[in-house]
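Re: [help] complex structure
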Amino acid sequence: MKNFDGKVLFLNRSDINTDEIIPAKYLTESTKEDLKPYLLEDLKLDTFNPKRDLHNINAIVTRENFGCGSSREHAPWALEVNGIDLVIAVDFARIFRQNMYNCGMMAVELPGSTIDMLFKKFSGRETFLKTDFENHKFTFTSGTISETVDFKINDFDKELVKAGGWVDFADLRY
Amino acid sequence: MGKTITEKIFDAHRIDELSGGVSVLKIDAVFCHEITTPVAINDLIARNKDRVFDPAKIKVVIDHVTPSKDTKTAIQAKTLRDWARRNNIKNFFDVGDNGVCHAIFPEKGFTRPGYTIIMGDSHTCTHGAFGAFAAGVGTTDLEVGILKGICTFKKPETIKFNITGNLREGVYAKDIILHIIGKIGVNGATNKIMEFTGQVIDSMSMESRMTLCNMAIEAGGTSGVCCPDMTTVEYLWEHIKDEYKSKEEALLEYKKWISDNDAKYDSIIDIDVSDLEPMVTFGFKPDEVKPVSEMAGTPVDQIYIGSCTNGRIEDLRIAASILKGKKISKNVRGIVSPATPKIFKTAMDEGIINTFIEAGFCVTNPTCGACLGMSNGVLAPGETCASTTNRNFNGRMGQGGTVHLMSPATAAATSIAGVIVNSEIFKGNK
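Output below.
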């Protein structure tokens, strides 16, 4: 299973699209590793600087409709090769969400009020996340502040995370 | 209780049900292009699974960057070409007979009512115009589709858009879909099907229906869909004439898919388009939409007419009717990309290509081209393009560039004026 613990990046914007996550001009790269320097290169967010803010990040917390636009699985791959296997948002675009689980990564929805609370308490501070995968709990910690929130994941998505993706699962079963 | 067209297609293709409301569907057609497929091919080779479920059900085209522009894109094309040959895939369209996937595959008759279709391309929703369930997927889903002919989907609910009224002259399917996206937002249809019905759809060409369904993904929709009718049969007839005794018989067969009158919808949205004006986007999201009249006078640097949204013959005819005998502004550069070789040839035969060239346009080969800034027509930082494509995302057509989405008529008029403007066809009042 992939790693769902570590340092959190807060991206305070809705509708972050896959062209912003990885621009089309890099879709000619032939390995996932080649995508690494370009993650979120075109993100339109004033406070964000990809060169400065992506160092040692393992999870992203963001707003609504993350991953909209193109179907490119290069978006999850660009996150993966940068050590980010978990995105938490109010909701996701369908194809992006499916691509994450198909790669054994997680795209987890939390209620808008919970996301608001997380932004209020932790955004702008160095924050770490610990994931209890079996009991469906995230614990966010920054200095002396800590919050634990429950999350939901359906059985099929959970199986994909455990199996590390969809290809072998499908080939064995069908 | 009745069913929607999508529910009927799901029921006819479901081979398994998994937890979380996930259905495993049998797929009738897997479409492939050179950007998202080579990674799947290389992964299948690495897993020692270099095979395909059914070579006749896989259709392949090189369209995003063609002819190849550099070593990397040449390798992508070669990977696809070698794979198609090795696996005996006959429907492979290479340089010379290739075109934009969502224009060429319908043109070849590969999209049929009642089909399930996947492709590693978000605009696969276009094919819903024929009464199919067609959805864009990522590379992993594509890989499993190639290997096993299956794909998982949650059963999507359907939003019904009942489009009524009479479109004013100079207002087109593109304006309707931009208006709808502006109304419901970029996630207004996430995980849902957008079913387009009503008298306006009934009298629309297949090209216009494809324009509508093409942009369902821009509202987050899993797919767009129009129920099949005689217009669908007429479009497909040259490909299906050996399968049916008459067009009426084909229509009767296709009608079994259409939504029942008592089908249950997530919601029904009525839209009267009688007062609709030509629309244009202003920001970096496809739901940031205004009437062209409110954006009039905005200068642009480039005009792009083409893509899976608006690069079909109907689109080129409309643009050419406005450009005929005129010159584009000295302040802009115009690029037109007929979406397929057949469209290109028809446009030549009808004198449309001549009109574009005399007006000062550059005519490219059929390709996705400028739409996503991958091959030609890339913008410099600070530049602006008036475009008939489907996405105005930040950096979409080149880093630091801005894209205004609009109909071919508005794009043609804008190329002459050098600033965003309504076409002369649109008179403003009823």
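DSSP finds seven helices and seven strands in chain A.
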